[in-house]
Amino acid sequence: MHNMFLGLFQRHCRKVFGMNIQVADPGSADEGPHEELEEISYDELVQALGKLEKYQQAQALKKSLTLPSLRALYQLSGRGDPEKRNKLQIAEELLASRSETISTATRNLANPHFEFIAPQPRSRKPTVLDKAVLQEVRADILVSQLPTWVGRTPMEVGSASAGTLSADQWRTFCTIHLPITLIRIWAQYPTSDKRRQMLDNYLDMVIAVRYGTSRRTSVRRVEIYNYHIFKYVRGLLTVFPGHDLVPNQHLALHLGEMLHSFGPTHSYWAFPFERYIRLLRHANINFRTSETERTFFRVFCISNNLRAMLESENLPAFLKNFGTMIEQAMGGDEKTALLGLFAQEAEPTAIVDEKKVTPLPRDVYQGLLACVRRDPTLNCSGNYRSIYDTSSSGQIVLNAQGHLLSSIKHKGRRFCPVSHHVGDSNVIFRVSSNGDTGMRILAMGQIQLIFVHKRRRPDGTDWHQLFVAIRRYRALSQRDMPHDTYGRYTALRAGLVYEALAVPVEVIPVRNIVAHCVTCPYRNSGTSEACMVAFTLDEVSSLF
């Protein structure tokens, strides 16, 4: 975790790019400030020489004199230009041979022809993430729609008021917000342009980290990780000449070996420890540190005993209603949530509450009927007809009512309709093809409704199942396709779609939802309709 999100992301932004909202003109930063020699009078030099005779400790001499006075004494002692030495280093060298220094300095001070050496101008690396770029990033952050489980980046990022970003905030900033903005403003330039080269190099790092921190790995994924991380490190030396590699960048080159030997990084990274350290830092222990361990152990036992009781078949039904409250109070079952991420066809279960059923909208019902007819795993070889179709006979009438839900938990994540939370409603999902090959295609869409549906099987039993009604995001036309610069970076799994949703409502079982996706309005003109960037957040599926 620290190697990726802090060792790579934080260092690249702060040290390689340079990030400062106060820098308005990146071109002027190439030259840097020119340090001028401060004029010191003869009397000041005499006083400085007197303090050199007085003090024998470097710290005391450092505190009693200014940097210009120390630099002048250094030159008077015949040592030349102190260059980049700081106050303490100059003081230590002056006191190393104190008597000789005083003698030489006194002699040169009496020489009216002695010339001081003006300091060389200090160069400063250019700031890539300057005011103009960070303002673009902040504008995109403001309008981006993120799921609730994604860590938020402070709006003041790039300034001191943002504070110290956590590893999770660096991950969100560098894998979501920066790629969305930098591709929009830099990908338009030719490959010979420095901005395009910086973008390509940065995205190699992002892609490598996304593969390196995926919750599933394979030989192919390790190969992709190695390709992009080695390309990133080699690119650093060519795109940013003079940049020195650091141990974290070297360590990242060996992560592929660890992925091959030990599997996904989440099983051995430090995120769980960091979370508990944060909890401990904010926990109110009433200055009773000796009781902290016992309290944590007691609460741990209580929470697990309560979970075991709730899963018991002998528990009265009315007590099971407190399950949600207990899970919220105890923080939920992280193991179950984690295992849910890996189940490709995992499907949450629910029972229709007959007191809360309502008629489904006509278009949603027609979409449900088409879905059940199309998928053999849903119709169980049964022949279903619409409740509005009175001409057919000998077929099972599909129930036209459903129990609407405000949210569901699937694969450890919360999904809900757009009317409740936009960020949790944007998803990527699997769609069965209409052909006979059984192939599956992927699409992006927005959840309109979530409902539990009860239908009669051919064997006469009832089946309760969760479905979602989705409106798909429309793909770009051939005319607008050249504007999708995100499509160049296929491993990033991002692209442009039209903001206006498709009119038809599609209904799919919840198990077909793959993951959330982030959306952000695309602010460049040129397309025939308003567009937005869609950025998938899949962690474990075979999408990548």
Structure characterization notes:
There is one protein chain. This protein has 4 domains: 42-110, no CATH class; 166-283, no CATH class; 294-309 and 317-332, no CATH class; 345-536, no CATH class. 41% of the residues lie in helices and 16% in strands. The chain has helices spanning 2-17, 42-54, 58-64, 67-76, 87-96, 98-110, 131-143, 167-186, 194-212, 219-239, 247-252, 255-262, 271-282, 292-310, 317-320, 323-330, 334-342, 362-374, 376-379; strands spanning 357-359, 384-385, 396-397, 401-405, 408-410, 413-415, 426-432, 440-456, 462-475, 494-509, 513-521, 531-536. Strand 7 (426-432) and strand 8 (440-456) form a beta hairpin. The radius of gyration is 32 Å and the shape is elongated. It starts with a helix and ends in an 8-residue tail after the last strand. Mean pLDDT is 83; it is low at 27-37, 332-344 and 433-439.
Question: DSSP strand (E) fraction?
Answer: 15-25%
Rounded to an integer in angstroms, the radius of gyration calculated over CA atoms is 32 Å
**Major sheet strand order:** 7-8-9-10-12-11
Determine the mean pLDDT. 83
Biggest beta-sheet profile: 6 strands, antiparallel, barrel
What's the shape? Answer: elongated
- Work out the number of β strands: 12
Helix content: 40-55%
